[in-house]
Amino acid sequence: MFPFPIDNVIMIAVGLGLITIGIKKGYEPLLLLPIGFGCLLINIPYSVLFDPGQVLALLYTYGIETELFPILLFIGIGAMCDFGYLLERPWLMVFAAAGQIGIFITLNAALALGFPPLQACSIGIIGAMDGPTAVYVTSTYAPEILPAVVVCAYSYMSMVPIIMIPLVRVLTTKKERMVRMEYTPKAYSKAIKIIFPLVIVIITGIIAPMGLPLMGFLMFGNFLRESGVVGRLVKCSENEIANVTTLFLGITIGGTMAAERFLRVETLMIFGLGIVAFVCAVSIGILFGKAAYALSKGKVNPIVGACGISAFPMAGRTAHMIARREDPFNYTILMNATGANTAGQIASVIAGGVILTYAPQLLGLV
Predict the structure, then answer these.
(1) Is 39 helix (H, G, I), strand (E, B) or coil?
(2) Residue 27 pLDDT > 50
(3) Which of these, 237, 188, 287, 280, lies nearest to 81 by C-alpha position?
(4) CA atoms of 315 and 348, how far apart (whole Å)
(5) Tens digit of pLDDT for each residue in 51-76?
(6) Whether pLDDT at 184 is above 70
(7) Which of 30, 142, 169, 174 shows its CA 20 to 30 Å from the CA of 245?
């Protein structure tokens, strides 16, 4: 008897594929390598790593089911974020709002395809382009599809340049891509950057209280950064906490990719809906950028509209790269794109909080 069932062979190939993409292409290697290796481990016949009491089962119980891993990651993300460019140009939040529309388009598409409401919410959140938010929402609402949603979200996040570049070229003209946006640094007190995360937590906590663990710890990390008095905690959040959590999260998610749970028709459907979510999020942002270009009489580069997503800092860097291919001296695009990108980080967490707070009522589940 052949010791490797064909389903296991397929999943081992998937794991090796994720590892290859992470190493050769450099796409999200911090996540794809642990996920791929975890997938490899769990699909070796007679693997016991996910049996009760075994290491991957324990990591899943205490890190995923308790939602500890995504929350710890948000502390690190918050510590890495500089909201300065956004504070200088708060109107960039318009693009961040546009970038979340893909969530709700995909949610309705999932419902139309017959997914149960809570699974549809979890699939829709892929459109936030925010891995930790996808983990948190899906582990809360539909843990049975967590492997597919998370692998889909992180895989597509790693391919932001591949998705974003052709969409920008199709939806914008060369003239639009060559726009040099004005950028003059605006002076504001340090107190504003310290107060900003506190205000965001209070406002969003009142609007969507179920999302408070996400926004609260994101802004806690940023508050530590901007306070300027806890450098050791900031470095720890950015490095040790973020790195260890990423390692454990990745290998645990990979460990959930057992062939019998992953190789289903619904998995392929989730991946298809995931690409719909990403394309809609980026495309709608670009269209909002074109509207801003028209309203400003050519002063806003539509590429910035594509950055209102949570894939930070990849979206901002990709926008900068696209613009400089058209005009090598277009340096100011980076500041504006980064501002929109950090706004997208906040907006994606707000969207996750809204879904956690209001989706059950709106879908008639309570």
Answers:
(1) helix
(2) yes
(3) 237
(4) 14
(5) 999 999 999 999 998 989 999 999 99
(6) yes
(7) 142
Average pLDDT over residues 108-125: 94
CA gap 257, 70 in Å, rounded: 18
Neighbour-count burial for 269-305, b at 16+ CB within 10 Å, e otherwise: bbbebbbbbbbbbbbbbbbbbbebbeeeeeebbbbbb
Written as one string, the DSSP assignment of 273-318 is HHHHHHHHHHHHHHHHHHHHHHHTTS-S-GGGGGG-SS-TTHHHHH
Decide if 309 is inside a domain. yes
Tokens matching residue 159:
């391919």
In this structure, is residue 1 part of a structural domain? Answer: no
Count of CB atoms situated within 10 Å of the CB of 223 = 20
* Radius of gyration in angstroms for the set of CA atoms belonging to the chain, rounded to a whole number: 20
pLDDT digits (tens, 9 = 90+) for 289-313: 999 999 999 999 999 999 998 887 7
Determine contact, residues 87/340, Cβ cutoff 8 Å: no
Residue 1 has pLDDT above 70, yes or no: no
Specify the amino acid at residue 189. Answer: S
Task: Please spell the DSSP secondary structure of 42-89, one letter per residue.
Answer: HTSTT--TTSTTSHHHHHIIIIIIT-HHHHHHHHHHHHH---HHHHH-
Query: Domain range for residue 300?
Result: 6-362
pLDDT digits (tens, 9 = 90+) for 212-247: 999 999 999 999 999 999 999 999 999 999 999 999
Cα–Cα distances (Å) from 245 to 15, 151, 197, in that order, read 20, 16, 23
Of residues 111, 85, 110, the one with CA closest to residue 96: 85
Distance, in Å, from the CA atom of 197 to the CA atom of 284, rounded to the nearest integer, reads 27
Q: What percent of the chain has pLDDT over 90?
A: 75
pLDDT average, residue stretch 12-17: 94
Number of domains in the chain: 1
What token pair was written down for 124? 């829709």
